Amino acid sequence: MDTQEGEQEPQLVLANKLFLITQPDVDDIEKVRLRDEVQTFVTSNDMVPLYETLVGEGVLSLDQKLMDEMRAKNEDELKKIDEKITDAEENLGESEVREAHLAKSLFYIRIGNKGKALEQLKVTESKTVAVGQKMDLVFHTLQIGFFHMDFDLISKSIAKAKKLFEEGGDWERKNRLKIYEGLFCMATRNFAKAADLFLDSISTFTTYDLFTYDTFIFYTVLTSIITLDRVPLKQKVVDAPEILAVIDKIPHLSEFLNSLYDCRYKSFFTAFAGLAEQIKLDRYLHPHFRYYMREVRTVVYSQFLESYKSVTIEAMAKAFGVSVNFIDLELSRFIAAGKLHCKIDKVAGVLETNRPDAKNALYQSTIKQGDLLLNRIQKLSRVIDL
Question: Which ranges form a coiled coil (predicted)?
């Protein structure tokens, strides 16, 4: 499976570099290198709007001569594109008119002018008949959305794409859309849906414009671990040949997955610590870093406690390779938040599990909902009496 970064949409590679520049965990030498690469990319693509933004944010330094040169090149290129559009409209067919308008859309995308690019994509769409070509325009819009992390634009574009597929569309584009939607779900903390979409696309992945296959497997394993139960995790992830073919290339990921499944908790915590940096420096996962770390710990603590009616805190600390105080503090937080069903007997130094069974949980839920309904009826009756 080819996983070269060059196959990615260059502007999404650029977006990742811009993200890393802002991160305190990235060292200064690396930031200097990233700034040089950003400067080279922005200059070689004459990205005047983005250059102005980056200068305003202090990422790049202003070079007025360079700015004027890039602006002149943009004006010259735009003039040629407009001449082609006029020529196509006056002398050529509908297909050539569409191609000329598409060229203008791609020009605005290339220079980083979000507003003009979205406007021009709408114009191009009005000249487009084929469903497949309309879908390609939606993918361009989605890439703009991911560059700017504009979740409203992404959400609307995904809905539009699904509507287009009701008119037709090929399997390759449908599978591609699943990955886009999966990334959107992951970036908006809907990890369960993201895992389903990623796992559904694991044997048909071709979306190299978003990320490499290695990154796709990384996301698939991370989202699956906190959302799948033990049996489906084994079937769909631990034993999946597509995952097995790649997982060893990604530092700590194989140990992270397998030590959790094999109940090797000390190894799991070591691998987890190694993965933390990768998660923190991932553009899409970074905002959910603390949430994800909590969810993983909930999964692993729950798995450990499921095996026992009661267990000493010392035994649990030893299994995880941490101190008794650490486990005591950790579990008290998770119990208070309702994430773990157990109680701590500090005097005896014992953890006692009190997992509610499904019937009991349903009974409690019914009682609670019944009380709410009675309260509402009482309030309503008072209003009616008045």
Answer: 71-98
Distance of alpha carbon 259 from alpha carbon 264, whole angstroms = 5
- In terms of Cβ atoms closer than 10 Å to its own Cβ (0-12, 13-18, 19+), residue 190 is middle
- Distance from CA of residue 287 to its chain's centroid? 10
328 half-sphere exposure, CB direction, 13 A CA radius: 12
**CA pair distance 374, 244, nearest whole angstrom:** 54
Joined together, the tokens standing for residue 69 give 């040169």
Scored b (16 or more CB within 10 A) or e, 51-89 reads beebeeeebbeeeeebeeebeeebeebeeebeebbeebe
**C-alpha–C-alpha distance, residues 343 and 354, integer Å:** 7
- Residue 274 to residue 263: CA distance in whole angstroms: 18
Strand partners, 353: 342
pTM (two decimals): 0.84
pLDDT < 50 regions, the chain = 1-6
The pLDDT score that the predictor gives to residue 6 is: 40
